[in-house]
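pinning this so it doesn't scroll away 📌
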Amino acid sequence: MASSLQGKRLGILVGGGPAPGINGVISSVTIEAIITHGMEVVGFQNGFRHLVQGSTTANRILTVEEVAASYLRGGSILGTARTNPAKKEADMAQVLGVFKEMKIDCLVTVGGDDTAFSGSQVAKRVGPWANSPDGQSIRVCHVPKTIDNDLPLPEGTPTFGFETARHYGTLTTRALHADAKTTGRWYIIISMGRAAGHLALGIGKASASTITIIPEEFRTKTITLESVTDLIIGAILKRKMMERDYGVAVLAEGLIESIGEKGLVSALGDELKHYGRIERDDHGHLRLGELEFGRIIKDFLKKRLKEIGVKVDFIDKDLGYELRSADPIPFDAEYTRDLGYGAVRFLVSEASKNYGAIISFVDGKMIPLKFEDMIDKETQRMRARKVNVESESFMCAKRYMVRLESGDLTDAKKLKALASFTNLDTATFAERFGPTANI
């Protein structure tokens, strides 16, 4: 029986930051669409960047031979971009104009929450149910990706790319832990993860890092540069009590956004300008890469330690860009094949005539999640999936970290030993680090 989309055109594009497995999705979408359903597949280069300019040339017809060769490779054969076509109605009109001129019948977007919203806006205007004034009709679905694992998919379902990023991040961190032990110093590792601490926690836990700090653990408490660095100082002093002069601290980059511009200015004043520029992207996010958060933490730690008479050598390391375009590990290679297959399966289904969806798999079964159920109308983004700090998994992670605890400050012998590494008396030490011990 011939497919209902036989001879139709499917467009595919990638938005947001890279993630291991993008080529796996492109490959499986293309192979399934061509071989099973007799469709033609058009790959749009660099997300919506050229589409908002009305360009009909920044694309190419994808073949089975081309995508099969890239299936297990990192990066994206279609590139990627953070262009937001929904920011201006004129931009969206250009996008839809290109789709109409190129006779696009189906669209697969691959990306995070911003790209999901962009895809949903295409669906809102020209989905089969939208009754577009000019008769334009495009079935739309989105394949969610991010190494941050912060999209609100069903419980236990990761975003593709996360497991690969965690794998390589863990290997790097283990190597740095060996270097820290060999050289007698501390590493401050900044892990990607703007909205949630999944990647930092996953790397820290799997690499047995000394301490991992994520925004979620502060719960309703205000996050400051002082509170973050005091957590690390507490770990440093406790390690000294164990006769260990080295360690590894893994921090989620989202801490810098939680501290915020006001918090950074309050702690650093005019010194902030020495660490980069405060800029925002098209979606309103702080360009975290523009600020050297690791160096900020390192220098502020040295300053805070000097004030209490402690000297420690630090190396700061940003961990993220080298993880985003790595070759996918077997988990993501298999997972992205499922997702690409599932995307095409949804598009050829009757359901795609009634709504656009985000593709998800639960227990091996493809579950399409309606755009309107997943994207907040006010924020225009999916709700971030945070680390559950009440879970057994988080409690286990924290249990194996080295942190100051309330008992360290109420036990006179431990308190005296900890304070002896500083120029503080026991009462002042307990007062200073009391808030840290209660996080």
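📌 and the second one:
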Amino acid sequence: MNSFSPTEDTIAAIATAVSPGQGSIAVIRISGSSAIEISKNIVHIPGMQPWNTHKVLYGHVIEANQKKYIDEVLILIMKGPRSYTGEDVVEIHCHGGIITVQKILERILDSPKARRAEPGEFSQRAVLNGRLSLTQAESISELISARSQKAAEIAMNGIEGNIQSTIQSIRHRLLEQLTEIEARIDFEEDLPPLEEKNVKNEIIAIRKDINELIDNTKRVSWVRSGLKVTLIGKPNVGKSSLMNRLSQKEKAIVTDLPGTTRDLLESEIVLEGVPVTFIDTAGIRETKNIIEQIGIARTQKALNQTDLIILIFDYSSGWSTEDESILKQIPKSIPLLIVGNKSDLKDGYSLDKEKILEKDNIVIISAKTGQGEIDLINYLLKLCGSSQSHGLDIALNERQLDLAKLAIDSLENIDKIFDEKLPWDFWTIDLRQAINHLGELTGDDLTESLLDNIFSKFCIGK
């Protein structure tokens, strides 16, 4: 697939998340020509269990002095090419935690034939050995970091090769056009003439298909990245109560005392497949309390780093000059929703929307009773375009999206070439550029440094 090949080193790394008291099982992965030899040197296998491929062995990892057991383990043997990386792979399944797992890894790395794996190096070797396409490997990373069921489904479709097959099909159509054009350049007298308009129409159709992929990616951006919502308002208007109701968790302290929240509190929920992070902030007001001033300063900083601002005011008391002052501090570039809370305390209160905004971005709720909660949730779903993500099977990641856009730019240049009736040689320049961009997207055209850069963003055990 590429002119370069993976290193011959045998690599090892912890392949599972490890933390004190969390996780009953941990996995250490070894890949390379010496994987089985190294494993045999550090484990004691009772009886006559053969080290056959795709078998599970039972045994113990032993200290270097051969006198003490480090842990009771299971050994999974996968000889290449029938393994994740395409090389000989051994996975050691041991008890979770930090101490035992690190000791086993140290025993492996004591061997002069092994070294610690770089981030994403296992997946990189899988790509270089033809076990995975580049887009499949990237989709594995997307699946690991998925924050919702919909994001996981889209990532799984990428693992199954849907991105690869879609882009390769588009690229093949461009190659067919380039082949036809180059044939006319080299053998013009021997072949029937090529109709420029037909070529342009096919390129327009291809552009449409690529643009559809780009649009689909934009439509599911919230599904992947999530929506960040910052709650602001005067003290004691119910910001913490609203966050607790939406998250169904008592993450924030709720009292009748103003200025209870002194720092930013976060809580994440998933609404119809979209992860939404709510940030409860310190109430904005004039204060001499140093700690509260720090909290308010952090609130103001958070306003510039959010996707949506919800300004909460006390509906039972009505819109005040203090609420108006806070409204003026909100960045104009950030979408805003105004929420009147505590509707349960003021039956029949008539809100004069003209005093707030002339826009339809006001929701009346009661964080205590839940009245108006559905209206608030529907507003959030509408903002992040949740309904638009239904039925979408694939979406490009940021790297792939950039290359797709570059391919579109190259193909759009052909419009000018067609209009000016330039010879076929000019068509081939932009066609080749588009083909190269799509080849880089799928991994058919890559440099070693670019591949290293892509996989450096993966976790170490992957």
